[in-house]
Amino acid sequence: MTGRKVLITGASGFIGKPMVRALAASGWTVRGAARDSAAIPDIAGVERVTLPDFSRPADWSPLVEGVSHVVHLAGIAHTPGQLPDEIYTRINTEIVGELANAAHGRVERLVLVSSVRAQAGLSAGHVITETDPAKPTDAYGRSKLAAERLVSESGVPFTVLRPAVVYGRGVKGNIASLVTLAQTPMPLPFGGLDNHRSLLALENLAVAIDLVLTSPKAEGEIFLVADSEPISVADMVAAMREGLGRAPHLIRVPAGGIKRLMATFGKEAEWERLSGNFVIDAAKLRGIGWTPRVKTREGIAAMMRAPNGTAC
């Protein structure tokens, strides 16, 4: 891989840090960019730089100069009800367009790590594939879809990844909410929840990114990314407690009762996002050679065993 250097934006984040380590370990020279460059892993083969100011039109030229590939992770995560649409548009869409334009003619490929929320809402009554029309249901999803369009229109060679909810060391969001409950000693009323949701291990995402950076079959394509098998909420919690060395201690309670319990923890909104079915078929990505190495249940248990693995 001589001469291959990849720029990773958002290199200090939940996904960014392990991507820096993974790509460096697989032979890439890495230029990691973050608002706080000191928070980027300080390891051999990694150059640490500061991101431009996203509040104004960004000059990406110094960051893309001398790199052959780009992985764009920087952005604002899904935070419903807290941010105006204009913030999502600026950070998740316009910035991406500026990066793509700067990369055009300079890099061999830009990999945009988007989100399955660019394609679908909180739940789906069918298995989601890339052939489904994109129908985002909130400002976050719309900003991600608009960014994909800007990249495809820029002329830069590109690949778009739409990952499912990602879990791993330092997990955030809805999975972290379940972690909080799983860490309590009390029995939890999730035994009857047999809904299924696709998740994505950080390790599996890293393998996907490494593949699509150079695969000729990935150029100009959009791929959903998820672990091989979906998992129920009951099995998620059981796996978390397994990782903690505990019995599942799950009981069966009607869904309405569970919703009230979540509300007492201030997690009613998270419950709404976890209670439905949301199954992703990543066959298209597997068809070009991607093999997810981590199975969801084992990955969740391992996450709980990792030092500080569930800190959020």
Structure description:
With 312 residues, the chain is an alpha/beta fold. Helices cover 37% and strands 13% of the residues. It has 11 helices and 9 strands. It has a 7-stranded parallel beta sheet, sandwiched between helices. The longest helix has 19 residues, at 85-103.
What is the count of DSSP helices, taking H or I runs of 4+ residues? 11
Shape call: globular
Share of residues in helices: 25-40%
Uncertain stretches: none
Q: Give a count of the beta strands, DSSP E runs of length 2 or more.
A: 9
Largest sheet: 7 strands, parallel
Distance between the amino and carboxyl termini: 35 Å
Mean pLDDT: 92
The radius of gyration is 19 Å
Structural class: alpha/beta
Order of helices and strands: EHEEHEHEHEEHEHEHHHHH
Provide a compact summary of the structure.
By secondary structure, this protein is an alpha/beta fold.
Features:
two-stranded parallel sheet, seven-stranded parallel beta sheet, 312 residues, 13% strand, 11 helices
Layout of secondary structure:
Layout: E1 5-9, H1 16-25, E2 29-34, E3 46-50, H2 61-64, E4 69-72, H3 85-103, E5 109-113, H4 139-154, E6 158-163, E7 165-167, H5 173-182, E8 199-201, H6 202-214, E9 222-225, H7 233-243, H8 255-264, H9 268-274, H10 283-286, H11 296-305
Parallel strand pairs: 1-2, 1-4, 2-3, 4-5, 5-6, 6-9, 7-8
Helix pairs in contact: 1-6, 3-4, 5-7, 7-11, 8-9
